[in-house]
Design brief:
Length: about 110
């Protein structure tokens, strides 16, 4: 049985170079930088723009909520906004649920 399976002998490793050790680390840094610039940074910018838009909400603005409800702002509180979605029909939604600000007159044409 020994004749069929040759013995395995460990080979002595050659001299290791420092560039061989730095390459994987450099590759990880490159991947993290790409990940940051393509995913994290744009998402932070989008969140910052949304917070600025929500902070500037005022009475009379026409907005769309994350649920797709189009309405006119009638009251702005600290955390909630009152929207008029039809004549004498008002609802309260969280400010964070307001996704976009529409041009004036959009509600009349809808």
């Amino acid at each position: 049985m020994n004749a069929l399976i040759p013995s395995a002998w460990a080979q002595a490793s050659g001299p290791s170079s420092t560039s061989g050790q730095i390459a994987p680390l450099l590759m990880m840094v490159v991947f993290i930088a790409i990940f940051y610039f393509l995913l994290i940074r744009p998402q932070q910018k989008k969140a910052k723009d949304h917070q600025a838009m929500v902070a500037k909400l005022s009475v009379g603005d026409e907005v769309v909520t994350s649920g797709g409800i189009l309405g006119r702002v009638t009251d702005v509180g600290d955390t909630f906004v009152t929207l008029e979605i039809a004549d004498s029909v008002r609802i309260k939604v969280q400010k964070a649920q307001v996704t976009s600000l529409m041009p004036k007159g959009t509600l009349k044409s809808a």
